Amino acid sequence: MTGLYLFFALVLAAVFGSFGNVLIHRLPRMILGDAAPDVSTAPHTFNLNHPASHCPHCLVPLRWWHNIPLLSFLFLRGQCAHCHASIAWRYFVVEAGCVAMAWLCVHQFGMTANALAYFVFLYALWILSWIDGLHYLLPDVITLPLIVAGMLFQFTLGHIPWTQALMAAALAYALLRLVYHVHFALTRREGLGFGDMKLFAAIGAWLGLLALPQVLLLACLLALVWLLMARLFQNRSPLIPLGPFLSVAAMIELHCPQLLLKWLGL
Question: What's the CA gap between 138 and 152, in Å, rounded?
């Protein structure tokens, strides 16, 4: 029965991944007021439900068997069933990532409410990472509820007092807000977005005070490595979104606590 439950959990995670692709594609356009250029519809009618899923190239609506998570992409060989235009690999990767996160949560926490809660946490980080990486945007509609969800989790199921979660969220926000103001005072340029502060606050609410230094340090190291690689291959300094690195660092901290300290021999 455990194997059967795990199978259904992974299938459900793939379905969440499919919806995650909808959020990644449509939510930024809804917020920025930029309806998808491939859709002949007024901006006010463009939302998560309308128009129906369709090929962005030929505009033909997709049938239900074109929308089966993971499997449809493989069976269609990454192409539209009608015009054979290529489908971005991102869609498959997002769904596969959700399945992997579900497996990790079940492996670490078992078939428990904690596993479900942490999957929701990681799922939100996963979606935010893609949106930030593609659009340099961390929507309040995800980050703010994630902070509240972290408080509720600590109040009901968590391993730390909810008051500590509140302190961690406040400290995380204040820390990045201070960095923002110091950087702006020195350079007259914005080095951080307010979405980064809210995301870090959410991570604090879910993981607690002790995780904050390690998450921030690891995120900065990952961002530095990415910047050096970009400079090496592009010969210029690209704009680096912090959200994906904060999210990856939080994922590592959740599944491998104290990993960075172990690497540093501390």
Answer: 22
Which residues are within 8 A (CB) of 33 and not within 5 positions of it... i.e. 6 or more apart?
43
Give the C-alpha separation, 215 to 229, whole Å.
Answer: 21
Q: What are phi and psi of 47, to 5 degrees?
A: -150, -165
**pLDDT digit string (tens) for 26-69?**
899 888 876 554 544 444 567 777 777 777 767 777 776 667 88
Q: How far apart are CA 259 and CA 222, in angstroms?
A: 14
Q: What is the pLDDT of residues 236-264, one digit of tens each?
A: 666 889 999 999 999 999 988 766 666 65
Look up residue 240 and give its DSSP letter: P
Question: Measured between alpha carbons, how far is residue 56 from residues 34, 36, 120, 197 in Å?
Answer: 15, 9, 29, 34
For residue 110, what is the DSSP state?
Answer: -
Instruction: Report how far residue 211's alpha carbon sits from residue 103's, in angstroms, rounded to the nearest whole number.
Output: 23
Helices (H), the chain: 2-32, 71-75, 90-109, 113-135, 140-156, 162-187, 194-207, 211-234, 243-255, 259-263
Task: List, as own/partner pairs, every contact residues 192-196 make where C-beta atoms lie below 8 angstroms and the sequence separation is at least 24, other chains included.
Answer: 192/242, 193/136, 193/138, 193/242, 195/132, 195/137, 195/138, 195/139, 195/140, 195/143, 195/243, 196/138, 196/242, 196/243, 196/246
* 105, HSE (Cβ side, Cα atoms, 13 Å): 24
Q: Tell whether omega for the bond before 51 is within 30 degrees of 0, i.e. cis.
A: yes
Cα gap 96→92, rounded to integer Å: 6
Q: Model's pTM, two decimal places?
A: 0.89
Residue type, 162: W
